[in-house]
Amino acid sequence: MKKVLFLFAFCTISTLSFAQWGVSYHQSNLPFIGINTQLGEKWLPEFRIGTDNYVENLGFELVANYLIKSEESTQIYVGAGARANIFGGAVITSGINYYPFNKKDFGFHMEAAPLINVESGLIFRGSFGIRYRFLKE
């Protein structure tokens, strides 16, 4: 039920804000795909779903990232959120998005995100990957 509420809240907030959408893929020992939207100039919430595992072991995350620095080609962010199912608990994120091409829709990212779990303790996850923004014309 928590998973459904996370997804519903994310979609509702994103739809009401008419914000810019994006998708991402994060490669790590706990890889995941993400759907995000930029709210205003500073907020980048993202809903994430684990990949490369059995369906019953899917991990779901909802994080709210705050853009510390946002330039045309570079975004630096920190954030926090929650993870459900496998390795469930709190997530603390920090990362960089880099858009090197003339059209600033496709880019790369790196992220460090400790997962705080009551049973397992602290898991430090580092990831890198690609990001695509559906830019408004």
Automatic annotation (TrEMBL):
Keywords: Signal
Record's signal peptide: 1-19
Protein's recorded name: Outer membrane insertion C-terminal signal
Species annotation: Algoriphagus zhangzhouensis
